[in-house]
Specification:
Number of domains: 2
Distance between the termini: 96 Å
Oligomer: single chain
Shape: elongated
CATH class of the largest domain: Mainly Alpha
Helix content: 55-70%
CATH topology of the largest domain: Four Helix Bundle (Hemerythrin (Met), subunit A)
Radius of gyration: 33 Å
């Protein structure tokens, strides 16, 4: 006891009445509840494959998609240069010549970066090799001609020569034409060769060598015709004859039965659980392997159910 007749623990420095103390069982239960979310999160992270097996970082896979961002810049710069050159051809101007040279330099830089990123993009595979070679060949030819035109124009600014501008214009417009053809093949790689003609009149389709395809005999079944329509509209652009993301094709039944990069076929008749298409369309939208990818029209629940039922019944044609 102190001078006031009280025990030290009762002076307010740590005294806790017996009836105010929390029962040990209740206290331990409360701590368990507080720790439960953390324990659950840890267990989920330990069992989630996406969390435990992170894909190694790849500069190629990171930079490759930027090809789609830059590919419009060369055409834009060179279109401006071509228009200014036509104007200057009719009305010569020293000031416009300087602007043309600046546009050429930007065009060469943009073309070079686009070609490098395009190489990285193509390294992922999944594209029709013939169309890819045409796209690459025309692009390299166009880029080389534009670079030559830029160097020649810079030389002519310092040392004008008779007939020099004629040669410059010939090289410039030939390079512009090559890049335009390369852009067309690039569009075919991404969207298919029928992008510009699939909804054209029959006469134009025939002239472009894209005749209207006759529907298969099995399309008399409305359910099968609906399945074919869903696949054509939402799947074949990335998994068709000209582009096979993940090594999978869905444009024909025979091609769909072949295994892709994951060693699993897109289609396993009678077994939706072993069909890669079913796994991909059931993944959450924010998953990297979800199909269709972000930016594309998603499948409706009715369409997903129809595809699963179609596979369960043997995926008839």
């Amino acid at each position: 006891m102190d001078s006031f007749g009280q025990h030290p623990e009762e002076t307010g420095c740590g005294y806790e009445p017996e009836d105010a103390r929390m029962h040990p069982v209740l206290r331990h239960s409360l701590w368990s509840l507080l720790l439960l979310p953390g324990l659950c999160g840890t267990a989920w992270a330990a069992t989630d494959p996406a969390a435990t097996v992170a894909a190694p970082f790849s500069w190629q896979q990171f930079l490759g998609p930027f090809h789609m961002v830059l590919l419009h810049l060369p055409i834009g710069f060179l279109t401006l240069v071509a228009l200014l050159e036509l104007w200057t051809w009719r009305k010569p101007s020293t000031e416009r010549r300087q602007v043309i040279q600046f546009g050429l330099v930007l065009g060469v830089i943009a073309t070079g970066l686009t070609m490098i990123l395009g190489y990285l993009r193509a390294s992922d595979g999944g594209y029709d090799e013939l169309t890819l070679q045409s796209h690459r060949g025309w692009g390299i030819a166009g880029g080389a001609l534009v670079a030559i035109a830029c160097a020649l124009h810079a030389l002519l600014l310092k040392h004008p020569a008779p007939g020099g501008l004629v040669g410059f214009r010939l090289i410039l417009f030939t390079g512009f034409l090559c890049l335009s053809v390369a852009g067309h093949h690039g569009g075919s790689l991404t969207h298919g060769t029928g992008l510009l003609t699939e909804n054209a009149p029959d006469l134009l389709r025939s002239w472009a060598n894209h005749p209207q395809e006759a529907p298969p005999a099995s399309s008399n079944d409305p359910a099968l015709a609906a399945i074919r329509s869903v696949l054509d509209q939402k799947c074949v652009s990335c998994h068709g004859a000209e582009k096979q993301k993940g090594g999978l094709r869905l444009d024909t039944r025979t091609a769909a039965l072949a295994a892709g990069d994951s060693s699993r076929p897109a289609l396993t008749p009678g077994d939706p659980g072993r069909s890669e298409i079913v796994r991909a369309i059931l993944l959450p939208r924010d998953h990297d392997e979800a199909m269709p990818p972000e930016g594309k029209e998603t499948l409706t629940p009715t369409e997903i159910e129809a595809i699963i039922h179609w596979i369960q019944t043997g995926a008839p044609e």
